[in-house]
Each structure stands twice: as structure tokens, then as C-alpha cells.
Amino acid sequence: ATGALLGGNGTLGSVSLVKGTLGPGDGSLSTLNTGSLTWSAVATMTFDLSSNSTLSDKILLNGNFTKSGTGNFTFNFIGGQASTTYTLVSWSGNTTFTAGNFTASGQTGSFAIAAKELQFTVIPEPSVVFLFLGGVAALIALHFNRKQKSPFTPDHTARSDDPGRSSSKPNKGSGLRITETCKKKENPPWRGSAL
Fold it and tell me: How would you classify the pairing of strands 21-24 and 5-8?
């Protein structure tokens, strides 16, 4: 029925999911065992994901995992850890699904089918990535500025007592070069005169 929820843990026979929602557990992290599972695109699945991929919700099929109809097959995710891969469904038989048949709600990530398992990898949200990259860039810039900065800050203010600076007023001991003008000595009045 539309809006109905089939969940819990333990073992079921073959399941045909036409409408409603299938979710392992009853609000807790669980594994649901069934026979073959046929899933119609109108129905959805709900999975709780923890920070530990091995303790999250999972469905184990003793049979085939079969697609019924066309459209998006949606997983509603609760929780999850960035950059973590979760095994959602595994089967012993065959499947008619491809990874591109599935969509995610509640998390951003990618699906993959490998070794008779449907896997989902959580991808960090772009805002988190940009925040991380911005922090790294700020640290690099700070390190670069500290490396380039001299331990001594030069003082460009001219002071009257600085021997390396010009001054409008000569100061005693200022180190300014003094130019002396020597006047030609005149002969004494007695030199060259007749006695």
C-alpha cells in the first residue's frame, strides 16, 4: 500500500516492493535478510547510516535483485559519514540494476555495483570542501608572510640625531662633513720692505 513501511530485522521470504517503503530495522541499525527482491520505482528504501560502515543498515538477499519498471529508485538516508562507503544491498543471484538507476535523498554521494553488492559512498558537501580549502590557503599565506618578514622593522623616520640622515640643522657630533675655507695669508708688512 502507498505510504506503508516494511521494516525490522530477521528473515523474510521473497519480497516484491511495489509501493511504500522498505527499511531494515525499526529505528535502529539492523540487517534484513530476504529471498529475492523485486523493486518498483514507485517505492523507496530508507537506510540509517552510522559513522561505522559495518554497523549501518543492510539488506542481504538470498536470490536476485530485480528492477521493475522505469524511473529513479530512491534511497532515503539518515546520517552517514563523509568519505565512507556503505554496502546497502548484497545478493547471491543476479541483478538487472545498474548504478545509474539509483538516486539519494538526505545525503550526497555516488552509487556503485561491485561483486554482487550495491554500495554508496558519501561525498562531502561543497560548502565543507570550500571551507577546508579556504583554511588551508589561509595557513599557507600566513606561513609565507612569516617566512618573508624580516625580524627587524626598519625605521624610515628621519631623526636629527641619525648620522645616516640629512638634517636641516647641523648637530654637534652629527657626523656631517665640515668644509673649511682657507684664506690666502697676506705677507707681513715688514716682509719685502726696505729697512
Answer: parallel
Task: Report how far residue 112's alpha carbon sits from residue 106's, in angstroms, rounded to the nearest whole number.
Answer: 18
For residues 80 and 49, the answer to whether their CB atoms sit within 8 Å is yes
Beta bridge partners of 121: 85, 110
pTM: 0.64
58 Cβ neighbours under 8 A, 6+ residues apart: 24, 31, 32, 87, 88, 89, 90
Q: How far is CA 24 from CA 7, 63, 107, 112, in A?
A: 5, 17, 18, 20
Cβ-proximal residues to 9 (8 Å cutoff; 6+ apart), any chain: 24, 25, 26, 30, 31, 32
Closest C-alpha to 45, from 89, 12, 98: 89
Collapse the DSSP code of 49 into the 3-class scheme (helix H, G, I; strand E, B; otherwise coil) and give the result. Answer: strand
Instruction: Identify the three-state secondary structure at position 28.
Output: coil
Q: Based on C-alpha coordinates, what's the Rg of the chain? A: 43
Q: What is the pLDDT of residues 118-175, one digit of tens each?
A: 999 999 876 544 455 556 666 776 766 666 655 555 555 445 455 555 444 445 544 5
Q: Please, are residues 59 and 86 in contact by the beta-carbon 8 Å criterion?
A: no
